[in-house]
Amino acid sequence: MHRPAPAVVSVTDLVVGHGTPLGPPLSFDLAAGEVLAVVGANGSGKSTLLRTVAGLLPPLAGQVRVLGAPLDARSRSFRAAVATDLGDDAFLPGLTVREHLLLVASGHAVPDPVAVCERLLAEFGLTDRADAPPTAVSSGQRRRLLMAAAFARPRALLLLDEPEQRLDPGMRRAVTARLRAERDGGGAVLVATHDGDLVRGCATSALVLAEDDVRSCAPEQAAAAIEAL
């Protein structure tokens, strides 16, 4: 008898926080071909949830499973499956924008990494600054580089923390289209955001976080919740 594939991410009674819980327990499943948007006011736990699922913070309680296995960020399978852009400007000194992308693509054995990187440089508007170090480009360009690096490698799960930050409206629309393509290609995306248009444009479901409540809802309702903040 055929058994359905496990959820890409399965969260059960998860409590997140830095020693003190940031809200009530969370439970949800995220399957291939889905985009789950996490919305809420600043301090509601969106970024902490992303960092917990990424294995950067330990859960205070509950369980996270990725591709059917308990979360272990040190495992080879987890590192191969999970791509992240959590907004951290962490770059290697001495490397250019292009060299950062090449390092990611080559490190994950992407076929024709040079062509992949050139395409991403063009897509994220970085071609003209490709030979500059990240420290010499604008804050918005560094954010675009972080996103391009997440797309420069194979992935089953993409974790994005407020990808709209530091981007102009045109690039925000381009990122929304990119996430829609990721979804339609079978990828799973967990994205924390304050951008109602992004939620409307690519999400398949949403969680609204508050200090004492978690609500699962449709993307349109989540976008309205953002606009009401």
Automatic annotation (TrEMBL):
Which Gene3D superfamilies would you find in this protein's record? P-loop containing nucleotide triphosphate hydrolases (3.40.50.300)
Record-annotated ABC transporter domain positions: 6-228
Q: Mind telling me which InterPro entries this protein's record contains?
A: AAA+_ATPase, ABC_transporter-like_ATP-bd, ABC_transporter-like_CS, ABC_Transporter_VariousFunc, P-loop_NTPase
In its UniProt entry, what is this protein called?
Answer: ABC transporter family protein
Going by the UniProt record, its keywords in alphabetical order are: ATP-binding, Nucleotide-binding, Transport
Q: What Gene Ontology molecular-function terms does this entry list?
A: ATP binding; ATP hydrolysis activity
Q: Give the top-rank taxon of the lineage listed in the UniProt record for this protein.
A: Bacteria
Phylogenetic lineage:
Bacteria, Bacillati, Actinomycetota, Actinomycetes, Kineosporiales
Coiled coil (residue ranges):
none
